[in-house]
Automatic annotation (TrEMBL):
Signal peptide, first to last residue: none
Keyword set, alphabetical order: Cell membrane, Membrane, Transmembrane, Transmembrane helix, Transport
Pfam families: BPD_transp_1, OppC_N
InterPro entries named in the record: BP-dependent_transpt_permease, MetI-like, MetI-like_sf, OppC_N
Protein name listed in UniProt: Peptide ABC transporter permease
Keyword Cell membrane: yes
Organism: Bifidobacterium italicum
BP term (GO), one: transmembrane transport
Every ABC transmembrane type-1 domain range: 114-312
């Protein structure tokens, strides 16, 4: 027996094992929340998710490649020849989106503003997640007076208007305006303080729900430490809704950052490009008919917020089992038509078929059937639908006054 024959498993001539298709193990990329949800999304859910991903990916690419996309710097007011840019110039070949009242190129400021917005979002969301998740774990697991103190503080912070709280924190941290990284950190910390209670309350509720489960009690019995239980068992099972909250808070963070810049508490214009500040400077231009200084920064804010919000809403719908299984109306109608009969009343169709077959049987063998077509129809309906057997055999025969069995 050759070595190749020894390695074969099965009956000689049986090729079913060779035709068996084994699914390869899934890669780490396919297990990511957005990628996994993109595969199971259908209908309008998938359309929303794809649209949001395209818009968000576009602004991420613009933010990463801003130095190569923007023709000028965010604070540049002179060309390479030393000639100053015209102020409030309409869109032209040299400045495709025109210039501002300060002589800045609108297209360059809008492109560079995407980088500022993305950096501020990353800083704010990361700080909010780490602080909120940690406090939620500690509060939900230990309970007692620690839980009561944290809940009171979170409720007090959550009761303040988010923009007003961000303004107060920005003034306390940087005095209102600062450099690029100082302004980003100030804006990020200001936004972080606003969103920590959301992560805290979500994680705390999940930890309280699962800390009495059997696997947590088993970990305590085998001697696992408190921090191991919190980090390995509770953390992994209490962060399912974080992607949804993260995306929704990211869109709100952009609006908060733009609000700070619009009110004059954001980043200095010579330190970085910021869409909120550009909108503030374009308020007087709009009344004079100079529309290009406000349209493009405002459109950038709308599109990036729309993209992130669509992702968050799609993930929220897919996380709900009742909405995840929802299909389009066309698919549902098609499946019903495939399984339905032509007649509007299936019982009438079944009875008609039974009578027809009974007549054929009586004509072919009248001695065996005895001309009783009703009995043949009853037997046929019983074989087709067991529920009819109860109806047919238990209904009283009024002509004879007895129940047929």
């Amino acid at each position: 027996m050759s070595e190749s024959t020894e390695l074969k498993v099965g009956v000689p001539g049986d090729t079913r094992l060779e035709k068996l298709n084994v699914e390869p193990p899934k890669s780490w990329l396919s297990r990511l929340p957005v990628v996994r949800d993109l595969k199971i999304a259908v209908g309008w859910q998938k359309g929303m998710l794809v649209t949001g991903l395209v818009l968000t990916a576009f602004f991420l690419i613009v933010a990463v490649f801003a130095p190569w996309i923007a023709p000028y710097g965010y604070a540049q007011i002179k060309g390479a020849d030393g000639v100053a840019f015209p102020t409030q110039a309409p869109p032209s070949k040299a400045h495709i989106w025109g210039t501002t009242v300060g002589g800045f190129d609108v297209f360059s400021r809008t492109v560079w503003g995407a980088r500022t917005a993305v950096i501020a979002i990353v800083v704010a969301v990361l700080l909010s997640i780490f602080a909120g998740v940690f406090l939620g774990l500690v509060s939900g697991y230990f309970g007692g007076w620690v839980d009561r103190v944290f809940v009171v503080i979170a409720d007090a912070v959550y009761s303040f208007p988010s923009l007003l709280l961000a303004i107060l924190m920005a003034i306390m941290i940087s005095g209102g305006q600062s450099s690029l990284w100082g302004g980003i950190l100030a804006s990020g910390i200001s936004i972080t303080v606003v969103y920590i209670p959301q992560y805290f309350r979500t994680i705390r509720a999940e930890v309280i729900r699962i800390k009495d489960c059997a696997y947590v009690e088993s970990a305590k019995v085998v001697g696992a430490s408190t921090w191991r239980i919190m980090g390995r068992h509770l953390l992994r099972n209490s962060t399912r809704t974080l992607p949804v909250i993260l995306t929704l808070n990211s869109s709100e963070a952009i609006l908060t950052l733009a609000g700070l810049g619009f009110l004059g508490f954001g980043i200095e214009p010579t330190a970085a490009a910021e869409w909120g500040y550009d909108l503030n400077r374009s308020v007087a231009d709009v009344t004079s008919g100079i529309w290009w200084t406000a349209v493009f920064p405002g459109l950038a804010i709308v599109l990036i917020v729309l993209g992130i919000t669509l992702i968050g809403e799609s993930l929220n719908d897919l996380a709900d089992p009742r909405l995840r299984a929802r299909k389009s109306a066309g698919e549902v109608i098609g499946s019903i038509e495939d399984t339905s009969v032509d007649s509007p009343n299936p019982d009438e169709s079944l009875a008609a078929v039974a009578e027809e077959q009974a007549l054929e049987a009586a004509e072919t063998d009248p001695t065996e059937r005895g001309g009783d077509t009703r009995t043949v129809a009853d037997e046929y309906m019983v074989t087709q639908d067991p529920e009819i057997a109860v109806v047919v055999r238990d209904v009283p025969d009024e002509s004879e006054g007895v129940i047929k069995r």
